[in-house]
Amino acid sequence: MQLFYRTYGQGKPFIILHGLFGISDNWVSFSKKIAELGYQVFVLDQRNHGQSPHSPNFNYLALVDDLFEFIDEHELENAVILGHSMGGKVAIRFALENPDYLSKLIVVDISLRQYPPRDYHLKVIRAMKKIDFSIVKNRKEVNTILSEDIESPRIRQFIMKNLYRKEKDELAWRMCLDAIANNLDEMFDGIEPENPLDKPALVVRGGKSDYVLDSDLPPIKIAFPQAEIKTIPNATHWVHAEEPELFFKYVYEFLID
Asked: What pLDDT score does 178 carry?
């Protein structure tokens, strides 16, 4: 699948994979700062997200294959791969299966374990599907309707990054909501490594998030013996958005080490 991507800078390859409901645009500011360190940064829209193609086939096997095709097509060697949430699971799976294709791994607020279904994701999808774009014509109206189900203004703004002008007077969602909803359970699958990754790894977790618990750390250290674990105390699951300076500091220190 030909994925849409944004690229910044020149130098060693650095690939960024967003999370569920995310989009490459979420990572622009961070990407530009990484590019200044001598990297060519590639920020991908994963399938069914952003400007990448839609497909009913939506699982980690497909997402990892997409990443492999992208790296192969662009002839990228020894890339640093960073993934957040769903993107972190893609990065982990790819790294364990293809260790020779990367130099370092950065995982943002996700562990290897299987997660129970999270009703909140379905709640977000239902809220997005409530929008009738034949009637709703501007972002303010979209925000008002979303606020009926999604209390957090920050999460609403995150979701509304997916809006675009399908026609001059018609908004639409970029992501394929049906494909995501139909395969949502697969996004919570666990990972059982056959062999550890003998490469430098960094795991950054939010202190107020329940995605990477203390009990998740021993399996992470088994899978990634060289892993550094960093906790950002005041951050939830959206570590990079809530504490961007501290998040960048940890990534920077990991890259130059």
From this structure: 95
Which CATH code for domain 5-116+191-256? 3.40.50.1820
Is the pLDDT confidence value at 120 over 90? no
Residue 23 pLDDT exceeds 80? yes
Catalytic pick among 18, 84, 237, 240: 237
What ranges do the domains of the chain cover? 5-116+191-256, 119-182
Assign 257 a pLDDT band (cuts: 50, 70, 90): confident
Average pLDDT of the segment spanning 137-157: 93
> Phi/psi at 117 (nearest 5 deg)?
-55, 140
Model's pTM, two decimal places?
0.95
Task: Identify the active-site residue in 54, 103, 121, 178.
Answer: 178
Known active-site residue 237: yes
First to last CA, the chain: 35
